[in-house]
Amino acid sequence: MSDVSAVKAALKSQVIETPSWGYGNSGTRFKVFAQPGVPRDPFEKLADAAQVHAFTGVAPKVSLHIPWDRVEDYAALTRYAEGLGLRIGAINSNVFQDDDFKLGSVTHPDPKVRRKATDHLLECVDIMDATGSPDLKLWFSDGTNYPGQDDIAGRQDRLAEALSEVYERLGDDQRMLLEYKLFEPAFYTTDVPDWGTSYAHCLKLGPKAQVVVDTGHHAPGTNIEFIVAFLLREGKLGAFDFNSRFYADDDLMAGAADPFQLFRIMHEVVKNGGLEPATDVNFMLDQCHNIEAKIPAVIRSVTNVQEATAKALLVDAEALAGAQRSGDVLASNGVLMDAFNTDVRPLLAEVREELGLARDPFAAYLASGNQERIAADRVGGEQAGWGA
Ligand code: PSV
Ligand code: MN
Ligand code: MN
Question: Record's PANTHER family (predicted)?
Answer without folding.
Answer: L-RHAMNOSE ISOMERASE (PTHR30268:SF0)
